[in-house]
Protein backbone atom coordinates (compact mmCIF):
# COMPACT_ATOMS: atom_id res chain seq x y z
CA UNK A 1 0.00 0.00 0.00
CA UNK A 2 1.16 3.48 -0.75
CA UNK A 3 2.48 5.32 2.30
CA UNK A 4 0.50 8.27 3.58
CA UNK A 5 1.83 11.57 2.31
CA UNK A 6 3.77 13.51 4.87
CA UNK A 7 2.08 16.76 3.95
CA UNK A 8 -1.49 15.47 4.20
CA UNK A 9 -1.75 13.51 7.41
CA UNK A 10 -4.88 11.44 8.00
CA UNK A 11 -7.42 13.28 10.12
CA UNK A 12 -6.73 12.85 13.80
CA UNK A 13 -9.67 11.53 15.77
CA UNK A 14 -11.15 14.19 18.04
CA UNK A 15 -11.41 13.23 21.72
CA UNK A 16 -14.73 11.44 22.36
CA UNK A 17 -17.31 13.77 23.79
CA UNK A 18 -21.09 13.88 23.84
CA UNK A 19 -21.98 15.40 20.47
CA UNK A 20 -25.35 16.22 18.96
CA UNK A 21 -26.50 13.63 16.41
CA UNK A 22 -27.60 15.34 13.18
CA UNK A 23 -28.45 12.23 11.15
CA UNK A 24 -29.80 9.08 12.78
CA UNK A 25 -30.43 6.10 10.50
CA UNK A 26 -31.54 2.75 11.83
CA UNK A 27 -32.32 -0.32 9.74
CA UNK A 28 -32.88 1.58 6.48
CA UNK A 29 -34.15 -0.60 3.65
CA UNK A 30 -34.61 0.31 0.00
CA UNK A 31 -35.43 -1.85 -3.01
CA UNK A 32 -35.79 -1.08 -6.71
CA UNK A 33 -38.13 -3.69 -8.15
CA UNK A 34 -36.87 -7.01 -6.89
CA UNK A 35 -33.35 -5.74 -6.22
CA UNK A 36 -32.72 -5.02 -2.55
CA UNK A 37 -30.18 -2.21 -2.57
CA UNK A 38 -30.18 -1.21 1.08
CA UNK A 39 -30.82 -4.08 3.46
CA UNK A 40 -29.99 -2.74 6.88
CA UNK A 41 -28.27 0.64 7.05
CA UNK A 42 -27.60 1.96 10.52
CA UNK A 43 -25.40 4.94 11.37
CA UNK A 44 -25.31 8.21 13.30
CA UNK A 45 -23.64 11.38 12.03
CA UNK A 46 -22.54 13.70 14.81
CA UNK A 47 -22.29 17.46 14.54
CA UNK A 48 -19.00 18.56 12.99
CA UNK A 49 -18.05 15.01 12.01
CA UNK A 50 -16.90 13.71 8.61
CA UNK A 51 -18.10 10.21 7.80
CA UNK A 52 -16.75 8.48 4.71
CA UNK A 53 -18.78 5.66 3.17
CA UNK A 54 -16.64 3.24 1.19
CA UNK A 55 -17.99 0.55 -1.05
CA UNK A 56 -17.88 -0.93 -4.50
CA UNK A 57 -19.88 0.72 -7.28
CA UNK A 58 -23.55 -0.21 -7.44
CA UNK A 59 -23.75 -1.07 -3.73
CA UNK A 60 -26.23 1.70 -2.90
CA UNK A 61 -23.87 4.22 -1.32
CA UNK A 62 -25.48 7.12 -3.19
CA UNK A 63 -28.97 5.75 -2.48
CA UNK A 64 -28.28 6.22 1.23
CA UNK A 65 -27.62 9.94 0.92
CA UNK A 66 -30.47 10.35 -1.55
CA UNK A 67 -32.75 8.98 1.18
CA UNK A 68 -31.26 11.46 3.68
CA UNK A 69 -32.17 14.42 1.49
CA UNK A 70 -35.63 13.06 0.62
CA UNK A 71 -34.95 12.37 -3.06
CA UNK A 72 -35.86 8.74 -2.37
CA UNK A 73 -38.18 7.30 0.24
CA UNK A 74 -36.78 4.38 2.24
CA UNK A 75 -38.99 1.26 2.27
CA UNK A 76 -38.39 0.69 5.96
CA UNK A 77 -36.38 1.74 9.00
CA UNK A 78 -35.95 4.99 10.92
CA UNK A 79 -34.36 8.05 9.33
CA UNK A 80 -34.14 11.22 11.36
CA UNK A 81 -32.39 14.41 10.30
CA UNK A 82 -31.99 17.04 13.04
CA UNK A 83 -34.27 14.84 15.16
CA UNK A 84 -37.13 14.89 12.66
CA UNK A 85 -38.49 11.89 10.81
CA UNK A 86 -37.81 12.65 7.15
CA UNK A 87 -40.21 10.00 5.84
CA UNK A 88 -43.19 11.71 7.48
CA UNK A 89 -42.45 15.20 6.14
CA UNK A 90 -44.69 17.05 3.71
CA UNK A 91 -43.28 19.08 0.77
CA UNK A 92 -42.92 22.33 2.73
CA UNK A 93 -41.20 20.66 5.68
CA UNK A 94 -38.88 18.86 3.28
CA UNK A 95 -38.05 22.15 1.56
CA UNK A 96 -37.21 23.76 4.90
CA UNK A 97 -35.01 20.81 5.82
CA UNK A 98 -33.22 20.84 2.47
CA UNK A 99 -32.14 24.41 3.11
CA UNK A 100 -29.93 23.05 5.89
CA UNK A 101 -28.43 20.28 3.74
CA UNK A 102 -25.95 20.69 0.91
CA UNK A 103 -25.62 17.98 -1.74
CA UNK A 104 -22.62 17.87 -4.05
CA UNK A 105 -23.41 15.78 -7.11
CA UNK A 106 -20.80 13.68 -8.89
CA UNK A 107 -20.46 15.99 -11.88
CA UNK A 108 -21.12 19.20 -9.96
CA UNK A 109 -24.60 19.49 -11.60
CA UNK A 110 -24.01 23.12 -12.57
CA UNK A 111 -26.86 24.78 -14.47
CA UNK A 112 -25.23 24.88 -17.87
CA UNK A 113 -27.30 27.73 -19.29
CA UNK A 114 -26.06 30.08 -16.55
CA UNK A 115 -22.70 31.62 -15.74
CA UNK A 116 -20.88 30.70 -12.53
CA UNK A 117 -22.22 33.89 -10.94
CA UNK A 118 -25.82 33.04 -11.91
CA UNK A 119 -25.36 29.49 -10.65
CA UNK A 120 -24.35 30.85 -7.26
CA UNK A 121 -27.05 33.51 -7.20
CA UNK A 122 -29.75 30.95 -7.97
CA UNK A 123 -30.06 29.46 -4.44
CA UNK A 124 -29.68 32.91 -2.87
CA UNK A 125 -32.58 34.44 -4.78
CA UNK A 126 -34.79 31.33 -5.00
CA UNK A 127 -34.14 29.61 -1.68
CA UNK A 128 -33.04 32.35 0.72
CA UNK A 129 -35.11 34.92 -1.23
CA UNK A 130 -32.40 37.59 -0.96
CA UNK A 131 -33.14 40.82 -2.83
CA UNK A 132 -30.20 43.09 -1.98
CA UNK A 133 -27.76 42.79 -4.90
CA UNK A 134 -24.83 44.05 -2.81
CA UNK A 135 -25.37 41.33 -0.24
CA UNK A 136 -25.76 38.73 -3.00
CA UNK A 137 -22.52 39.84 -4.69
CA UNK A 138 -20.66 39.75 -1.38
CA UNK A 139 -21.81 36.20 -0.65
CA UNK A 140 -21.06 35.00 -4.20
CA UNK A 141 -17.56 36.48 -4.17
CA UNK A 142 -16.89 35.26 -0.61
CA UNK A 143 -17.77 31.65 -1.32
CA UNK A 144 -15.94 31.62 -4.67
CA UNK A 145 -12.90 32.97 -2.90
CA UNK A 146 -13.20 30.16 -0.34
CA UNK A 147 -13.01 27.56 -3.11
CA UNK A 148 -10.29 29.51 -4.94
CA UNK A 149 -12.25 30.32 -8.10
CA UNK A 150 -12.99 34.02 -7.91
CA UNK A 151 -11.46 34.46 -11.38
CA UNK A 152 -14.05 32.14 -12.92
CA UNK A 153 -17.04 34.18 -11.76
CA UNK A 154 -18.24 35.15 -15.25
CA UNK A 155 -17.36 31.91 -17.02
CA UNK A 156 -19.87 29.41 -18.33
CA UNK A 157 -19.79 25.86 -16.88
CA UNK A 158 -18.69 24.53 -20.27
CA UNK A 159 -15.49 26.59 -19.94
CA UNK A 160 -14.53 24.92 -16.65
CA UNK A 161 -12.49 21.77 -16.05
CA UNK A 162 -13.92 18.83 -14.07
CA UNK A 163 -12.20 19.93 -10.86
CA UNK A 164 -13.35 23.52 -11.28
CA UNK A 165 -16.93 22.37 -11.86
CA UNK A 166 -16.83 20.43 -8.62
CA UNK A 167 -15.45 23.43 -6.77
CA UNK A 168 -18.18 25.67 -8.16
CA UNK A 169 -20.76 22.98 -7.31
CA UNK A 170 -19.36 22.95 -3.80
CA UNK A 171 -19.49 26.74 -3.62
CA UNK A 172 -23.13 26.69 -4.77
CA UNK A 173 -24.12 24.30 -1.99
CA UNK A 174 -22.08 26.16 0.65
CA UNK A 175 -23.51 29.56 -0.21
CA UNK A 176 -26.71 28.85 1.74
CA UNK A 177 -24.68 27.86 4.83
CA UNK A 178 -25.77 24.22 5.15
CA UNK A 179 -25.26 22.40 8.43
CA UNK A 180 -24.82 19.03 6.73
CA UNK A 181 -22.94 18.34 3.48
CA UNK A 182 -23.51 15.19 1.46
CA UNK A 183 -20.77 14.52 -1.08
CA UNK A 184 -21.48 12.02 -3.85
CA UNK A 185 -18.09 10.84 -5.10
CA UNK A 186 -16.43 14.25 -4.91
CA UNK A 187 -13.15 13.14 -6.48
CA UNK A 188 -14.33 10.67 -9.13
CA UNK A 189 -12.91 11.41 -12.57
CA UNK A 190 -10.26 13.81 -11.30
CA UNK A 191 -6.51 13.51 -11.49
CA UNK A 192 -4.71 12.65 -8.20
CA UNK A 193 -3.52 16.21 -7.59
CA UNK A 194 -6.96 17.76 -8.10
CA UNK A 195 -8.51 14.94 -6.05
CA UNK A 196 -6.24 15.78 -3.16
CA UNK A 197 -7.01 19.49 -3.52
CA UNK A 198 -10.74 18.76 -3.38
CA UNK A 199 -10.29 16.49 -0.35
CA UNK A 200 -8.28 19.15 1.46
CA UNK A 201 -10.87 21.74 0.47
CA UNK A 202 -13.58 19.56 2.05
CA UNK A 203 -11.60 19.54 5.32
CA UNK A 204 -10.89 23.25 5.18
CA UNK A 205 -14.53 24.11 4.55
CA UNK A 206 -15.68 21.73 7.25
CA UNK A 207 -13.51 23.60 9.75
CA UNK A 208 -14.47 27.03 8.42
CA UNK A 209 -18.22 26.48 8.27
CA UNK A 210 -18.46 23.77 11.02
CA UNK A 211 -20.28 21.37 8.75
CA UNK A 212 -21.09 17.70 9.34
CA UNK A 213 -20.43 15.64 6.23
CA UNK A 214 -21.15 12.29 4.66
CA UNK A 215 -18.68 11.58 1.87
CA UNK A 216 -19.44 8.76 -0.54
CA UNK A 217 -16.31 7.61 -2.29
CA UNK A 218 -14.10 4.75 -3.33
CA UNK A 219 -11.06 7.00 -3.46
CA UNK A 220 -8.86 5.87 -0.55
CA UNK A 221 -6.78 9.05 -0.64
CA UNK A 222 -9.92 11.11 -0.22
CA UNK A 223 -11.04 8.83 2.62
CA UNK A 224 -7.65 9.12 4.31
CA UNK A 225 -7.64 12.91 4.17
CA UNK A 226 -11.25 13.61 5.07
CA UNK A 227 -12.54 10.82 7.30
CA UNK A 228 -13.12 11.07 11.03
CA UNK A 229 -14.84 7.72 10.72
CA UNK A 230 -15.18 5.28 7.82
CA UNK A 231 -18.12 2.95 7.14
CA UNK A 232 -17.51 0.14 4.69
CA UNK A 233 -20.55 -0.98 2.74
CA UNK A 234 -21.10 -4.36 1.17
CA UNK A 235 -24.26 -6.03 -0.09
CA UNK A 236 -26.61 -3.36 1.26
CA UNK A 237 -25.21 -3.04 4.77
CA UNK A 238 -22.23 -1.69 6.65
CA UNK A 239 -19.75 -4.42 7.43
CA UNK A 240 -17.08 -2.38 9.20
CA UNK A 241 -16.67 0.93 10.97
CA UNK A 242 -13.66 2.76 12.37
CA UNK A 243 -11.00 5.34 11.71
CA UNK A 244 -8.70 5.03 8.71
CA UNK A 245 -5.90 3.67 10.89
CA UNK A 246 -8.18 1.14 12.60
CA UNK A 247 -9.61 -0.19 9.35
CA UNK A 248 -6.19 -0.35 7.76
CA UNK A 249 -5.43 -3.19 10.19
CA UNK A 250 -8.78 -4.95 9.72
CA UNK A 251 -8.85 -8.72 9.22
CA UNK A 252 -11.94 -8.51 7.02
CA UNK A 253 -10.96 -9.43 3.48
CA UNK A 254 -13.42 -7.01 1.88
CA UNK A 255 -12.16 -4.11 4.02
CA UNK A 256 -8.55 -5.01 3.35
CA UNK A 257 -9.20 -5.08 -0.38
CA UNK A 258 -9.86 -1.31 -0.27
CA UNK A 259 -6.70 -0.54 1.64
CA UNK A 260 -4.55 -2.76 -0.53
CA UNK A 261 -5.68 -1.06 -3.72
CA UNK A 262 -3.06 1.27 -5.16
CA UNK A 263 -4.52 4.71 -4.52
CA UNK B 1 -48.03 -15.44 -19.47
CA UNK B 2 -49.67 -13.51 -22.33
CA UNK B 3 -52.43 -12.28 -20.03
CA UNK B 4 -49.81 -11.14 -17.54
CA UNK B 5 -47.96 -9.19 -20.24
CA UNK B 6 -51.22 -7.58 -21.34
CA UNK B 7 -51.97 -6.64 -17.73
CA UNK B 8 -48.52 -5.11 -17.32
CA UNK B 9 -49.06 -3.13 -20.57
CA UNK B 10 -52.34 -1.76 -19.24
CA UNK B 11 -50.72 -0.97 -15.90
CA UNK B 12 -47.95 0.97 -17.62
CA UNK B 13 -50.49 2.87 -19.69
CA UNK B 14 -52.53 3.75 -16.62
CA UNK B 15 -49.38 4.77 -14.74
CA UNK B 16 -48.50 7.01 -17.69
CA UNK B 17 -51.91 8.70 -17.49
CA UNK B 18 -51.46 9.10 -13.74
CA UNK B 19 -48.04 10.70 -14.27
CA UNK B 20 -49.55 13.17 -16.76
CA UNK B 21 -52.28 14.10 -14.25
CA UNK B 22 -49.76 14.55 -11.41
CA UNK B 23 -47.51 16.66 -13.62
CA UNK B 24 -50.45 18.80 -14.75
CA UNK B 25 -51.49 19.32 -11.11
CA UNK B 26 -47.94 20.32 -10.15
CA UNK B 27 -47.81 22.77 -13.05
CA UNK B 28 -51.18 24.27 -12.21
CA UNK B 29 -50.45 24.55 -8.47
CA UNK B 30 -47.14 26.25 -9.18
CA UNK B 31 -48.67 28.95 -11.41
CA UNK B 32 -50.37 30.37 -8.34
CA UNK B 33 -47.68 29.43 -5.80
CA UNK B 34 -46.16 32.92 -5.82
CA UNK B 35 -42.66 33.97 -6.83
CA UNK B 36 -43.36 33.79 -10.57
CA UNK B 37 -40.12 33.68 -12.58
CA UNK B 38 -40.72 36.71 -14.80
CA UNK B 39 -37.18 36.98 -16.14
CA UNK B 40 -37.10 33.32 -17.15
CA UNK B 41 -40.59 33.67 -18.69
CA UNK B 42 -39.43 36.64 -20.80
CA UNK B 43 -36.28 34.74 -21.81
CA UNK B 44 -38.40 31.76 -22.88
CA UNK B 45 -40.77 34.02 -24.82
CA UNK B 46 -37.75 35.36 -26.69
CA UNK B 47 -36.29 31.88 -27.30
CA UNK B 48 -39.64 30.40 -28.33
CA UNK B 49 -41.20 33.33 -30.13
CA UNK B 50 -38.50 35.42 -31.69
CA UNK B 51 -36.24 32.51 -32.62
CA UNK B 52 -39.08 30.65 -34.35
CA UNK B 53 -40.42 33.65 -36.24
CA UNK B 54 -38.23 33.21 -39.31
CA UNK B 55 -39.16 29.56 -39.74
CA UNK B 56 -42.89 30.19 -39.20
CA UNK B 57 -42.73 33.22 -41.52
CA UNK B 58 -41.07 31.36 -44.40
CA UNK B 59 -43.39 28.37 -44.09
CA UNK B 60 -46.52 30.54 -43.91
CA UNK B 61 -45.37 32.62 -46.88
CA UNK B 62 -44.91 29.48 -48.97
CA UNK B 63 -48.27 28.07 -47.80
CA UNK B 64 -50.09 31.26 -48.88
CA UNK B 65 -48.28 31.31 -52.19
CA UNK B 66 -48.88 27.63 -52.95
CA UNK B 67 -52.52 27.71 -51.87
CA UNK B 68 -53.28 30.52 -54.34
CA UNK B 69 -51.44 28.70 -57.12
CA UNK B 70 -53.36 25.49 -56.36
CA UNK B 71 -56.77 27.12 -55.88
CA UNK B 72 -56.66 29.43 -58.88
CA UNK B 73 -57.29 26.87 -61.69
CA UNK B 74 -60.26 25.33 -59.82
CA UNK B 75 -61.84 28.68 -59.02
CA UNK B 76 -61.32 29.89 -62.61
CA UNK B 77 -63.17 26.78 -63.82
CA UNK B 78 -66.05 27.71 -61.52
CA UNK B 79 -65.88 31.32 -62.57
CA UNK B 80 -65.09 32.40 -59.05
CA UNK B 81 -61.62 33.84 -59.43
CA UNK B 82 -62.63 36.89 -57.42
CA UNK B 83 -63.20 34.58 -54.45
CA UNK B 84 -59.48 33.74 -54.22
CA UNK B 85 -58.57 36.27 -51.46
CA UNK B 86 -61.62 35.26 -49.41
CA UNK B 87 -60.97 31.52 -49.81
CA UNK B 88 -57.33 31.91 -48.88
CA UNK B 89 -57.95 34.10 -45.84
CA UNK B 90 -60.63 31.80 -44.42
CA UNK B 91 -58.56 28.66 -45.02
CA UNK B 92 -55.40 30.25 -43.66
CA UNK B 93 -56.86 31.93 -40.58
CA UNK B 94 -59.29 29.21 -39.54
CA UNK B 95 -57.22 26.12 -40.12
CA UNK B 96 -53.98 26.06 -42.06
CA UNK B 97 -52.16 28.90 -40.29
CA UNK B 98 -52.75 27.68 -36.71
CA UNK B 99 -52.08 24.02 -37.50
CA UNK B 100 -48.95 24.62 -39.61
CA UNK B 101 -47.53 27.01 -37.00
CA UNK B 102 -48.25 24.55 -34.20
CA UNK B 103 -46.73 21.62 -36.08
CA UNK B 104 -43.58 23.62 -36.84
CA UNK B 105 -43.39 24.61 -33.17
CA UNK B 106 -43.90 20.99 -32.12
CA UNK B 107 -40.88 20.08 -34.23
CA UNK B 108 -38.73 22.98 -33.15
CA UNK B 109 -39.83 23.90 -29.63
CA UNK B 110 -41.22 20.69 -28.08
CA UNK B 111 -38.10 18.81 -29.14
CA UNK B 112 -35.79 21.51 -27.84
CA UNK B 113 -37.61 21.70 -24.48
CA UNK B 114 -37.64 17.89 -24.26
CA UNK B 115 -33.92 17.69 -25.04
CA UNK B 116 -33.00 20.57 -22.72
CA UNK B 117 -34.89 19.27 -19.70
CA UNK B 118 -33.85 15.70 -20.53
CA UNK B 119 -30.21 16.71 -20.53
CA UNK B 120 -30.72 18.64 -17.27
CA UNK B 121 -32.21 15.48 -15.80
CA UNK B 122 -29.31 13.31 -17.00
CA UNK B 123 -26.71 15.70 -15.61
CA UNK B 124 -28.61 15.92 -12.29
CA UNK B 125 -29.29 19.65 -12.67
CA UNK B 126 -33.00 19.18 -11.92
CA UNK B 127 -32.15 17.05 -8.87
CA UNK B 128 -29.70 19.74 -7.76
CA UNK B 129 -32.45 22.37 -7.92
CA UNK B 130 -34.82 20.13 -6.00
CA UNK B 131 -32.42 19.21 -3.20
CA UNK B 132 -31.31 22.81 -2.77
CA UNK B 133 -34.89 23.69 -1.81
CA UNK B 134 -35.54 25.62 -5.04
CA UNK B 135 -38.59 24.80 -7.13
CA UNK B 136 -37.63 23.33 -10.54
CA UNK B 137 -41.25 23.07 -11.68
CA UNK B 138 -41.79 26.78 -11.16
CA UNK B 139 -38.51 27.77 -12.80
CA UNK B 140 -38.37 25.28 -15.67
CA UNK B 141 -41.88 24.03 -16.36
CA UNK B 142 -44.31 26.86 -15.58
CA UNK B 143 -42.27 29.43 -17.51
CA UNK B 144 -41.90 27.24 -20.59
CA UNK B 145 -45.54 26.12 -20.78
CA UNK B 146 -46.86 29.66 -20.29
CA UNK B 147 -44.36 31.00 -22.83
CA UNK B 148 -45.47 28.51 -25.50
CA UNK B 149 -49.16 29.15 -24.70
CA UNK B 150 -48.54 32.88 -25.14
CA UNK B 151 -46.12 32.93 -28.06
CA UNK B 152 -47.56 30.27 -30.40
CA UNK B 153 -50.84 32.21 -30.89
CA UNK B 154 -48.75 35.30 -31.66
CA UNK B 155 -46.64 33.32 -34.11
CA UNK B 156 -49.80 31.99 -35.73
CA UNK B 157 -51.20 35.52 -36.18
CA UNK B 158 -47.92 36.73 -37.69
CA UNK B 159 -47.82 33.59 -39.85
CA UNK B 160 -51.36 34.26 -41.11
CA UNK B 161 -50.42 37.80 -42.14
CA UNK B 162 -47.27 36.60 -43.93
CA UNK B 163 -49.25 33.78 -45.60
CA UNK B 164 -51.76 36.30 -46.91
CA UNK B 165 -48.89 38.35 -48.27
CA UNK B 166 -47.55 35.22 -50.00
CA UNK B 167 -50.99 34.78 -51.56
CA UNK B 168 -50.95 38.40 -52.75
CA UNK B 169 -47.63 37.87 -54.53
CA UNK B 170 -48.89 34.62 -56.12
CA UNK B 171 -52.00 36.39 -57.40
CA UNK B 172 -49.80 39.06 -58.95
CA UNK B 173 -47.79 36.45 -60.89
CA UNK B 174 -50.72 36.06 -63.26
CA UNK B 175 -53.20 38.82 -62.48
CA UNK B 176 -52.88 42.29 -61.20
CA UNK B 177 -54.55 43.21 -57.94
CA UNK B 178 -53.70 46.14 -55.72
CA UNK B 179 -52.37 45.52 -52.26
CA UNK B 180 -55.17 47.45 -50.56
CA UNK B 181 -57.93 45.76 -52.56
CA UNK B 182 -56.52 42.30 -51.86
CA UNK B 183 -56.19 42.90 -48.12
CA UNK B 184 -59.59 44.58 -47.93
CA UNK B 185 -61.13 41.50 -49.53
CA UNK B 186 -59.22 39.24 -47.13
CA UNK B 187 -60.18 41.18 -44.00
CA UNK B 188 -63.80 41.66 -45.10
CA UNK B 189 -64.28 37.93 -45.43
CA UNK B 190 -63.21 37.31 -41.82
CA UNK B 191 -65.29 37.94 -38.75
CA UNK B 192 -65.22 37.32 -35.05
CA UNK B 193 -66.27 33.66 -35.45
CA UNK B 194 -63.20 33.03 -37.59
CA UNK B 195 -60.67 34.83 -35.43
CA UNK B 196 -61.67 33.91 -31.89
CA UNK B 197 -61.83 30.10 -32.28
CA UNK B 198 -58.58 30.19 -34.28
CA UNK B 199 -56.73 32.11 -31.58
CA UNK B 200 -58.30 30.01 -28.82
CA UNK B 201 -57.13 26.78 -30.38
CA UNK B 202 -53.60 28.07 -30.91
CA UNK B 203 -53.44 28.78 -27.17
CA UNK B 204 -54.30 25.10 -26.63
CA UNK B 205 -51.77 24.05 -29.27
CA UNK B 206 -49.14 26.14 -27.49
CA UNK B 207 -50.04 24.57 -24.19
CA UNK B 208 -49.77 21.08 -25.70
CA UNK B 209 -46.34 21.86 -27.22
CA UNK B 210 -44.96 23.23 -23.93
CA UNK B 211 -46.60 20.67 -21.68
CA UNK B 212 -45.55 17.63 -23.71
CA UNK B 213 -41.99 18.97 -24.15
CA UNK B 214 -41.63 19.61 -20.43
CA UNK B 215 -43.24 16.31 -19.42
CA UNK B 216 -41.06 14.23 -21.72
CA UNK B 217 -37.87 16.03 -20.66
CA UNK B 218 -38.69 16.04 -16.97
CA UNK B 219 -39.54 12.33 -16.98
CA UNK B 220 -36.68 11.13 -19.16
CA UNK B 221 -34.50 8.29 -17.90
CA UNK B 222 -30.99 8.87 -16.66
CA UNK B 223 -28.85 8.07 -19.69
CA UNK B 224 -27.55 10.04 -22.64
CA UNK B 225 -29.71 8.00 -25.01
CA UNK B 226 -32.83 9.12 -23.14
CA UNK B 227 -32.22 12.77 -24.14
CA UNK B 228 -32.78 11.83 -27.80
CA UNK B 229 -35.74 9.65 -26.87
CA UNK B 230 -37.30 12.55 -24.89
CA UNK B 231 -36.84 14.98 -27.80
CA UNK B 232 -38.20 12.57 -30.37
CA UNK B 233 -41.12 11.46 -28.27
CA UNK B 234 -41.97 15.11 -27.46
CA UNK B 235 -42.33 15.92 -31.19
CA UNK B 236 -44.44 12.87 -31.97
CA UNK B 237 -46.75 13.24 -28.95
CA UNK B 238 -47.14 17.01 -29.31
CA UNK B 239 -47.97 16.68 -33.04
CA UNK B 240 -50.56 14.03 -32.27
CA UNK B 241 -52.10 16.22 -29.56
CA UNK B 242 -52.28 19.16 -31.97
CA UNK B 243 -54.42 17.14 -34.40
CA UNK B 244 -56.61 15.77 -31.59
CA UNK B 245 -57.16 19.26 -30.16
CA UNK B 246 -57.83 20.59 -33.67
CA UNK B 247 -60.47 17.94 -34.34
CA UNK B 248 -62.23 18.68 -31.05
CA UNK B 249 -61.93 22.46 -31.47
CA UNK B 250 -63.40 22.35 -34.99
CA UNK B 251 -66.35 20.28 -33.75
CA UNK B 252 -67.03 22.72 -30.91
CA UNK B 253 -66.64 25.75 -33.20
CA UNK B 254 -69.02 24.22 -35.76
CA UNK B 255 -71.62 23.55 -33.09
CA UNK B 256 -71.31 27.05 -31.64
CA UNK B 257 -70.89 29.25 -34.71
CA UNK B 258 -71.63 27.52 -38.00
CA UNK B 259 -74.96 25.74 -37.43
Count of discrete domains of chain B: 1
Low-confidence stretches of chain A: 1-7
The CATH superfamily of one domain in chain A is P-loop containing nucleotide triphosphate hydrolases
Radius of gyration of chain B: 21 Å
Give the uncertain stretches of chain B in residue-range form: none
The largest chain-to-chain contact, stated as pair and per-chain residue counts, equals: A-B, 25 and 15 residues
What structural class is derived from the secondary structure elements of chain B?
Answer: mainly alpha
Question: What coarse outline of chain B follows from CA principal-axis ratios?
Answer: elongated
What is the second-level CATH architecture of one domain in chain A? Answer: 3-Layer(aba) Sandwich
Count every helix of chain A, treating DSSP H or I runs of 4 or more residues as helices.
9
Number-wise, the strands of chain A total 10
Beta content of chain A comes to 15-25%
GO cellular component, one term (chain B): ATP-binding cassette (ABC) transporter complex
Pfam families (chain B): MlaE
GO molecular function (chain B): phospholipid transporter activity
Protein name (chain B): ABC transporter permease
Short description:
Chain A has helices at 61-68, 91-98, 116-126, 133-146, 162-174, 192-209, 220-226, 244-248, 253-260; strands at residues 21-32, 35-46, 50-55, 76-81, 84-85, 101-104, 180-184, 212-217, 229-234, 237-242. Chain A is of the alpha/beta class.
